[in-house]
């Protein structure tokens, strides 16, 4: 650009200013974020957990890591080196000579601005006698005095200085670049060009490309996209997936394939050690030729998972690989739960789409518990406690105590419990009770309502039902379970089942009526209420449509009082305001809200007591509503990751399309403990309400009259009363 000059720093002074600022911008934030916090804090935290978690594998590994890790020392050394460089540069800058003074001829001659010509000449003679080289003065100073005198005595030079600040007139704008001049020196041009090319054409594209390649391979939960597609394929192919099949699908994940994940390894000794484990485990479908279950990485991962569940000892090399597989499994199973829920949503919106059965999704949750605790499905939950072995269970399940679950053990009297656990010493008994007391005990309170509706208790077609669940976590201390009535899943004896059935029969006999027709419930038919008269009231309401004023909708609300059931056959052809699309949009908004909520809240709740899990696991839960008779999900599972003391969760689902009484279940499942799952019954009554959406032409009254006549013809045995609006 004309009139501008770019100058590099010949002396290198301004370059140090730039370098000091650059280093400071890196060192100061890095010190705040990377400086190791008080090392005693982690030691104190582990010390506080020692009494309960001292025998846990993850605790021992964490304690060893905190004692042997050199990462904090390396971080401190790097930060101290950065601060040393920063302080050295700051000291260098403070010593630099800064002579950037503005040229002023009046100051050179020691005159006030605006002095007269005679005063300028007089002052020049005085200074000449003092600083002239012939008189023994300084030549440089005299040259400055002569230049100032010439600038002020020449009329044109004086005007230029007053207007432009320069006796020579307007000059070119000069820009200083805080880089040393040797960078643009011709001798160093190839070196500088090589550095620029390496930085911007090699390093930067490689870094950006690596980040982009990784981001497109992984989902938001850091699961490989290929693994998610694999899970979706097999869950669609096998809607009813048992535990064996589920373990095969889990260990086929690409996270365990060395070609997709560098953390996974295949060792030369696997050809000897893995077949030996297979012989010890027994039948694990080794001969199955279906890919990828027959691949070496999948077979090895499956053997390691099954050996972990059987609590078998493996070699040191396989133990390292086993820890890697076990550590990855809970996140992969959570992804399988998400995939199952997505397929269920797709099945709800598309006819003929195969949705996974409820048992498949619940098996994923059960397998997560089994992997965290290192227990097989058929094993007793009591084996989660320390010092409990298989031979000790015979004392617990004897006829005298009948202890089969953790809740039964807590509910025993202290004297009976001490007598039953006499095989433990006093010290071990205290440790078992401390661990048992730290286990969670959750109470659930549910509230069912229809939000954004005038009558929040009236459930009609197209309405969104909201179940607010309040979860309260307490420690499983002695006596807590005796005060609660929440049902838990546990094995019931045959006698208990028979007594329950006999009670149900007695209740049904007492409630039986002589009516000839029996009311069917929870099957979509109308449950009739007995009355002396039969009436039918039809209200026809005109409502505006969704977007255009030309579109109208008719809502027909039918209230029946009859002695027998009536099946409304024409309800199947009615469109309930696109409830499926609204349900999908609602689920998407709920998932986005859940993710935003989890991002703002800490997922640190309570450490899980696990004897065989290699990593510290936080206590999380699944909460959902299901129809256990139909084996279907009613609401999508909510992953509760922030329950410390109390948390309120809203579960939403669309009202059933058919009227009747529905028996649902609010289910709470742990992702870490066996035997602590809970189920609470939920009764939903869907009232008889039909919403008809139709487009009316100009002859609205005629169409409305025809609609009334059609309804009356179908229900001709009743009297009709109509009202128009």
UniProtKB/TrEMBL annotation:
Family matches, as Pfam families: DnaJ, Sec63
Name of the featured protein: Translocation protein SEC63 homolog
Protein's cellular compartments: Endoplasmic reticulum membrane
CDD domains named in the record: DnaJ (cd06257)
GO biological process: nervous system development; post-translational protein targeting to endoplasmic reticulum membrane; SRP-dependent cotranslational protein targeting to membrane
Function description: Mediates cotranslational and post-translational transport of certain precursor polypeptides across endoplasmic reticulum (ER). Proposed to play an auxiliary role in recognition of precursors with short and apolar signal peptides. May cooperate with SEC62 and HSPA5/BiP to facilitate targeting of small presecretory proteins into the SEC61 channel-forming translocon complex, triggering channel opening for polypeptide translocation to the ER lumen. Required for efficient PKD1/Polycystin-1 biogenesis and trafficking to the plasma membrane of the primary cilia.
Chief place of localization: endoplasmic reticulum
Organism whose genome encodes this protein: Myripristis murdjan
Residues that span the membrane, as ranges: 15-35, 70-91, 190-213
């Amino acid at each position: 650009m004309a009139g501008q000059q770019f100058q590099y720093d010949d002396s290198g002074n301004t370059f140090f200013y730039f370098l000091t600022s650059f280093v400071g911008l890196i060192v100061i934030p890095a010190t705040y974020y990377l400086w190791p916090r008080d090392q005693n804090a982690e030691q104190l935290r582990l010390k506080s957990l020692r009494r309960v978690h001292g025998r846990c594998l993850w605790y021992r590994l964490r304690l060893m890591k905190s004692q042997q890790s050199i990462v904090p020392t390396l971080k401190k050394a790097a930060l101290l080196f950065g601060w040393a460089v920063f302080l050295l540069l700051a000291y260098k800058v403070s010593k630099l000579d800064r002579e950037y003074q503005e040229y002023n001829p009046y100051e050179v001659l020691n005159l006030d601005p605006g002095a007269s010509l005679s005063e300028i000449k007089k002052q020049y003679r005085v200074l000449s006698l003092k600083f002239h080289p012939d008189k023994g003065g300084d030549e440089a100073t005299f040259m400055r005095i002569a230049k100032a005198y010439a600038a002020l005595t020449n009329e044109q030079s004086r005007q230029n200085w007053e207007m432009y600040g320069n006796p020579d007139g307007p000059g070119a704008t000069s820009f200083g670049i805080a880089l040393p001049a040797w960078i643009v020196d011709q001798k160093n041009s190839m070196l500088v060009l090589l550095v620029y090319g390496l930085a911007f054409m090699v390093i930067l594209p490689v870094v950006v490309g690596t980040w982009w390649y990784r981001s497109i391979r992984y989902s938001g939960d850091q699961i490989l996209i290929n693994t998610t597609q694999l899970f979706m394929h097999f869950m669609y192919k096998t809607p009813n997936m048992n535990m064996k099949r589920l373990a095969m699908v889990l260990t086929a994940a690409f996270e365990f394939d060395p070609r997709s994940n560098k953390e996974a390894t295949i060792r030369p000794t696997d050809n000897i050690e893995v077949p030996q484990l297979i012989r010890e485990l027994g039948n694990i479908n080794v001969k199955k030729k279906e890919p990828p279950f027959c691949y070496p990485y999948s077979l090895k991962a499956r053997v390691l998972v099954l050996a972990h569940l059987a609590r078998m000892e493996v070699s040191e090399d396989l133990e390292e690989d086993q820890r890697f597989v076990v550590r990855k499994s809970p996140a992969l199973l959570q992804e399988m739960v998400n995939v199952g829920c997505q397929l269920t949503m797709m099945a709800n919106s598309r006819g003929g789409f195969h949705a996974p059965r409820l048992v498949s999704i619940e098996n994923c949750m059960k397998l997560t518990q089994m992997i965290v605790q290192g227990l097989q499905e058929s094993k007793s939950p009591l084996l989660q406690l320390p010092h409990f072995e298989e031979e000790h269970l015979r004392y617990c399940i004897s006829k005298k105590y009948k202890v089969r679950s953790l809740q039964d053990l807590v509910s025993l009297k202290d004297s009976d419990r001490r007598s039953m656990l006499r095989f433990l010493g006093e010290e071990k008994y205290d440790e078992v009770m401390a661990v048992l007391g730290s286990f969670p005990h959750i109470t659930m309170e549910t509230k069912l309502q229809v939000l954004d509706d005038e009558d929040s208790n009236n459930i009609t077609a197209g309405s969104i039902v909201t179940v607010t669940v309040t979860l309260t976590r307490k420690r499983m201390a002695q006596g807590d379970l005796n005060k609660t009535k929440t049902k838990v899943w546990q094995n019931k004896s045959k006698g208990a089942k028979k007594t329950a059935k006999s009670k149900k029969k007695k209740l049904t006999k007492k409630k039986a009526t002589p009516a000839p027709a029996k009311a069917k419930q929870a099957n979509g038919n109308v449950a009739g209420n007995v009355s002396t008269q039969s009436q039918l009231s039809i209200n026809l309401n005109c409502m505006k449509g969704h977007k255009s004023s030309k579109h109208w909708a008719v809502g027909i609300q039918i209230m029946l009082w009859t002695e027998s059931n009536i099946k409304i056959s024409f309800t199947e052809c009615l469109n309930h305001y696109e409830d499926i699309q609204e349900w999908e949009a609602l689920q998407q908004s709920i998932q986005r809200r859940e993710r935003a909520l989890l991002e703002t809240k800490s997922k640190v709740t309570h450490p899980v007591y696990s004897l065989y899990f290699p990593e510290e696991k936080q206590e999380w839960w699944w909460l959902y509503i299901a129809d256990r008779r139909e084996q279907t999900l009613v609401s999508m599972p909510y992953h509760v990751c922030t329950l410390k003391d109390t948390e309120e969760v809203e579960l939403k689902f669309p009202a059933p399309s058919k009227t009747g009484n529905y028996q649902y279940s609010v289910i709470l499942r742990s992702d870490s403990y066996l035997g602590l799952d809970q189920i609470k019954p939920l009764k939903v009554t869907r009232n008889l309400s039909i919403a008809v959406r139709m487009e009316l032409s100009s002859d609205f009254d005629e169409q409305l009259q025809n609609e009334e006549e059609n309804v009356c013809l179908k229900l001709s045995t009743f009297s009709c009363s109509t009202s128009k609006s």
